[in-house]
Structures are given as C-alpha cells and as structure tokens.
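pinned: reference chain
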Amino acid sequence: MPKLRLAVDNGKKHINNMTQEELIQAQKLAYSLPFDERSVFLEQMLAPAVSSFGYDITSPEWLESDFDDEEWNCLFGKRKKQIDFRVRLDNSSLLTHGVNAKFLYTIKYFLCAQTHPRFNAGNRLLPKTSAQKVIKAIHFVDYVLLRGKHFRPAEFGFGLLTNNDLKVFMHRFQAGGVSEGVHDYSHYMTSHLRKIAMGISDTEVQKAIQIHPSITKLPVERYLKFEDDELIRIKTWMHNHGVFRGLKGNEYHTHKLRPAVYDNTLGGKAAQFPVLTEVLAEGHGSREFEAVPVHSETSEGVGEKTVSDYRYMIQSLYVISSDEFSGVSANTLDDFNTDGQRPNSGSANAIKRNRSLPAGVVFKAMRDGFEFTFQYAEDVLATIPALLKQHATYSGKNPLNNLNSALPDILPSSLSEAGVIQWYPPEFQRFDERFGQLRTNKSLLDLYAVLMGSIQIIVGVLMARRVAELVELKPDCLVPKQIDPNAQDNQKIQFQLIFENRKSGAQGDRESLSRPIPRSAAKLIWALQQFRLQLIEYDIISTQSPLLVGFIGSNGAPKKFNRDVYSEHLDRFCDYFQTQTVTLAEGDVRRYYIRQHQLRRFFAMAFFWGSGYDGMDTLRWFLGHTDAEHLWHYITENTPGVVLRGVKAEKMVHGLNNDEIQGIERLRELLKERFGVDDLTIQSLSDVIDDYEGEAEAGYVVLNPELDVLKQELSCNVELLLKEGTIDLEPTFATVISEDGKSMQKITLVLRIKETDDD
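pinned: its structure tokens
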C-alpha cells in the first residue's frame, strides 16, 4: 500500500492505468487517511478523469476581484454582490490586519470552496445556486463573528467550535431561520432601540406628537416587546432623524434602523430583516385594521430542504480542517456527522403552522371576487389605458390634477354611476375616513386595486400556486395561446395556465408546468392579457413587462409588480368587501387579510372539509373535474406534502369527537400514550366557552387562552405522526346507485396506522 501511495504522489499511478486490484487497494488507502490527506490523494489519483480538479479553488468564476483583496466584487450571473472583509473581531482588530491573515485566508477559502466542482459532485453550478451556497457560508461566518466573546475568533479562528456548538447552530437556525437563528435580530434590535428610547426627552416627545400625532397609534401585536412609552420615544426619534419614508410613515429606511453590531459581519450589514410594523407611524399602515395573525404561536421553523442545505454547508468545513487553516477540527466534524442529526426532530413545536382561513371567509371572497369582476373588469381595464394615453402628452408639474380632470371625458357611464370621480384618493384624507371613501368607488385607482385583488383571489384559490409563481406569470401563460375563452366557438376548449415551478428543476433551473384552469378564471387571464397589450400599444409599459401590472402612485406611472404590490391588492380587496373581523383580548379588533399561502392551504382543506357529496360537487365545478377520485389525485399532486399533512392533522383532531373518520379510535389510543393520559376529549375554544359560560360570568371559572395552544400542540403531535409515517388519512371512493337509478359517489375518510413488530 505505501508503494501505491508513493506512485500516486509521483504521478506514475492514476485511475486510468490502475489494475482492478490496485483500485481496491486505493479505495482502502483513501478510507484510512485523515480527511485533508484523503482529499489530496483522491485528487491526484482522479485528476486525469475529473476535469473539475483543474479549477483553482481561490479563483471561482463569480469572483471579479483578486483573492487577496480586502473587498470582493462578486458577479453571480447578473446579480452583483460585495463582500467587505474589513470587519472588527472580538479583540477590536480588523479581520484584514496582518495578525489575522490565517483566519482571513480560512474564511475566503471556505467561501470559494462552496462552489468548486470538487465539492459539488464534479458539477459546475448555475450562478443562482452558487450565490445561495456562498450566502449560506457567510451566514455561518456571521454566526461566529457575532458571538466573538464565546468563540474568540481573533485568537482561534473557528478552532474553538465543538460538536455541540455546531448542533446548537443547526438548532437555532432550524427554529428561527437566518434573522433569529443566525443574526439574533430580536435581541440586538431590542437593545439598540431601547438605547434610542432612553435618549429621547419628554419635550422631544410632546413636540413630535404635535407635528405627527400618528406616532401615538400603537399596535397590539408587536414583534419586539416594547412598552407603550418606549415605542412612542422610538417613533419620535425615527421622525426626528428621517428614518420614515414618505409623509404617512408607512415605510422606513431599514439601513437607518439597523444596529451597529451588524457592521462587523459579512452579511448582516446588508441583510433583509423583518419589517417592524410596530414602529411605523400609522398604526395599521395601509389597512383598516390590524391583521388576524397568519401563523400560530408555535415556531415557524425552517423547511427540511433548507435545513439539509445548511447541514451540507457545515459538513463542507472539512475543507478547512487541516493545519493550514484556522478551521474546525476534523474530529469535531466526525462527531457532528455521527450524532448531529436534525435537532429536536421529534418536537411538535418544530413544525410550521399556518392558521387556516375559515371556509366562510374564502367562499364569500370568491363570490365577491367573481361578482366584482363580472360587473367592473371590462370597463376598468378599458378606461385606464385610454386615460393614460391622453395623460402621456401632459408635460405640466401636477400630473394628478391632469389625470383627475381628464377622467370625466373618458369615463363610461357604468363607472360614473358606480361613483368614480377621480383617479387617485386625495392625500389629505384622514386615515379613519380613507376606507369609507374606498367603498364609495370614488377612485379609479382604488377600483383597479380591488379588481386585481379579486382576480388574485379567484386564480389563487383555483390554481393553488405559490405567490411567486403568480406574481411572475408570463404574458403568454394561457394556453392555447391567442384563443379567446369568451368566444362561443371556443367553449369546448380546455384551457391551461403555464407557470414556472419555484421548487423544481435541476441545479436552480425552474421547471415550466401547465395546469388546467377553469374557463371562468381563464377569461380573467385573457382580459389581463388584452389590458397589457393596450398599455404596450400606448407606450405605457414595455414589451418586456410581465402579465400583471401595478399602479400604486398618483402620477399614473406603472410600478414593478412584486409581492408587496400583490399583497396590497389583497389588502384593498379585504377592506373593500370588509372580510370578517374577530375581537381578541381587550377589544382588539382584527380583520382576515387573505394571503396566497392560506388559499393554497384551503385548496386541500376543501377536500377534507367538504360537506359530503354536495360539497365535493361545488369543488369539482370550480376545478373542472367530473370525478371525485380524479379530484383527489389532482389535489395530492399539486399540494405540498407539508401543507397536506397540516390539513390532515387538523381534520383528524376535529374528528376525534365524532365518527366521520373510519378508525379514528386508534388515533385516540396513540395520542393517549403520547400525552400519558387515561382519557382524551377535544373541544374547540367556543365549545368550552359555551360549557362554562355561566361559571365564567359568575367569576368561578377563568377561561385561559392556553386551551387553544394545547389544541394546537395536539394538532402538531398528530402532524408529527403523519410525518413519521405512523399514520395516514386517505379517502376511499365508492359509487352508489340510488333507487331512482342515479349514481352517486360516496367518500369515506379512513385512518391508516402503520403496524409495527410490537403490535
């Protein structure tokens, strides 16, 4: 064996000239070597057959700067990124100072190695994939830098990290994502803003309130747990230092609010942290009410695929485990790979829980959306291009006045009768009057936003796609192309919607998929296509514009359609039609502001919660299916596993107190074992209130909101059993012939439990 190694080292032996026996010896030899020696040996042996070994790790394709530069200019396809290594370490020395040269080299080498073909199965990665892998590695570096007092990177680099530290990193990331798990955003932001609040005097507060009375509007729901007085002082400081964007203060410059601690990180200084709605000048922003929370109180967590990607990044630390670097020891990494399985994988709290929309909210929204589009879509989509065509020749200083004055001559009688009198709602409008005005149809722009919200609701429910897939719909997404679904001759044509699947494709490629779309929704997509073509004809938008067009400003200029615009349209829809409100503690009124991920969940819920055969009939009509079993297959093919598990869990928890699920008693026994109880009864919060209403009014019983939390924990445990494969909920289908000879499909939900050797 020593002779073979020497021959490989000298270049006399390699994979192309080895015998079968020598190949077996080489394999055994590689396994016996430490990681760093193993990598060198395998590279030398495989070099003639693996072209990727010819790539220099320190010169990746995306690096436009020299490896030794203090700041890197990176180009991942068309995406530019800068990495500034001039950050201060735990001893206040700059990372770029000569004394830290070894640690700096370690970090740079680690970043470059993420995209090298040698560590990616010999593949050259797509630019988007390369960027994602480098950013994940930056997150790990930031994690260490932010905890410099513990890890002492100035002295030891990554050398003090233990197996437990790596597992803690994975646990924190899994539970809180990048913002909380890596950058500890709540902690640093709370500390930063609390210091700001302490520096604001009562005089400054009173003066600010006189100028900006809106800073006294304080939300009930807060990301950071500030007291009212602290929050008012923070908003005072933001007003005084120009942190708010625009007159209304519904947005702020995030970089002006970012704690200074992130200046000494590679990625934190430019990270997109959550927007803190509690510090906005207007208490509700552009909504009439605060929103009913879309997530449960349990941890949102991070998806399995993302966790796996970060785990692979941790494993790549082997690349810098030799004495040449200030890296994590190979022994530590071996221990991590041996027992560093996904932390708390059995915890119910690790499961993301999205709150479901009440069925009544969704069905009413669909009815409102269909009725609104039927009444206004044609006229609104015809009037806006005509108005903007006339406005295009205007060169004055007040575009809003021009738009408002030009509108009456263009406005069709149907919109005039509906109440439309102007393009944009007046800026001087009081916040509490804004939404009453919205519902009087005075603004054409508002009417357009409600129309777009209506279309988004309809298409969102019927197609059950991710929000990004709908935002990025291409102009020719409706097939057959250039076929009008309104024409009588085309009534038998089955239309499809083409979209780019956000979660598919090799190495970052997006897979184009087509799915059937009901004719009612196809007509709306067709209307938007014709609207876009008119705008192009009048030079309002370019030929490269996507299907959806956003008009948010008062000057009539189109705004890039993105997630924010998409959400704003949905908010406008919900306020216009006054979707259901609920009253929480202390009279806090919240409104259901619909989001696409909720509609996507509802798509699957509709099957399980359909009221018998009649309910399925309605769903089949919406989706254009004729057979219940075909509908079931369609749902399972188009609904993510995590969503489907959540819906099944919710249905099974509900079914524990009735007989609508075959075999549900077996689930009851499993849960009794898991909770360690002798009996199990499930009630909704409203049921509990009904049972104890008299006692509660008399003060003998205190109704604790934790009841709802306990029910959620139960649902999470059921979901975990589903995830483990211990149980499953599946429908069975049977055709029943009635006495009058009509055939009906009967659907039975069946609980299936995986039998074990102990059973």
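why pinned: The CA atoms of residues 392 and 567 lie 28 Å apart. Residues 640-753 form one domain.
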